[in-house]
Amino acid sequence: MEAVLDLYAEPADPLRPRVCFDETTKQLVAEVRDPLPMNPGQVERYDYEYRRNGVANLFLCYSPDHPAGGWRHVDVTQQRTKVDFAYQLKALVDVHFPAAEKVRVVLDNLNTHTPAALYEAFPPEEARRLAERLEFIHTPKHASWLNQAEIELGVLAGQCLDRRIPDTAALKREVGAWEAARNRARTVIEWLFNLTDARTKLKHLYPSTS
């Protein structure tokens, strides 16, 4: 926990950017009948019936240190295996932060979130190259709320995913529009919980020295 909080307290460093990473799923649901449009005094109405079209995975990364300001990126995939995770890491290193000496990634303890994923996806030389450009900072078990990417996923859920989306193509369009608008605004998470707060409010989590 303290390692994560120390990281958040640091000033931005373009050569060692901080990136919070998380994922979620979205049930794809298509309408069986066209919704009735909104009219004066009446909201848009949907039929209770719908058709399930499977589940999509969404990888989200957020960084306060991107040259563009507060920055996030969402990638929609069919699954979230170690190989899928490895390609997200490669994109962080080679696409999103190519000038960084080290990308410091905050993430939870999901079993796919390990450097070993790189070796499952790429030849050893490439996996090693990527691993040397990455530093993993894991949140404690049962404390994934420390990951700022969870805040962004909450905003995404409330502003974009809280309705029926029929298929992957539509999901990518909707998520892409949300991402672009939020990045244009350069929205930065104002993180207030610090090391002093942790040692005061969560002191029951620390070993007793008495």
Task: Write a brief caption for the model.
The chain has 210 residues and is an alpha/beta fold. It has seven helices and five strands. The protein has a five-stranded mixed sheet, sandwiched between helices.
Overview of the molecule:
A 5-stranded mixed β-sheet has the order 3-2-1-4-5, sandwiched between helices. The protein has helices spanning 2-9, 82-96, 116-121, 124-132, 148-159, 168-184, 195-201; strands at 18-31, 50-63, 71-77, 103-107, 134-138. With 210 residues, the chain is α/β, with parallel strands linked by helices. It has 7 helices and 5 strands. The radius of gyration is 20 Å and the shape is globular. The mean pLDDT is 90. The two termini are 22 Å apart. It has a single domain (2-30, 50-195), classed as Nucleotidyltransferase, domain 5 (2-Layer Sandwich).
**What share of the residues lie within helices?**
25-40%
Cα distance spanning the termini? 22 Å
CATH class label:
Alpha Beta
By CATH's scheme, which homologous superfamily applies?
A: Ribonuclease H-like superfamily/Ribonuclease H
Report the sheet with the most strands, covering strand number, pairing sense and barrel closure.
5 strands, mixed
Q: What general outline do the C-alpha atoms trace?
A: globular
What is the radius of gyration? 20 Å
Structural class of the helices, strands and pairings? alpha/beta
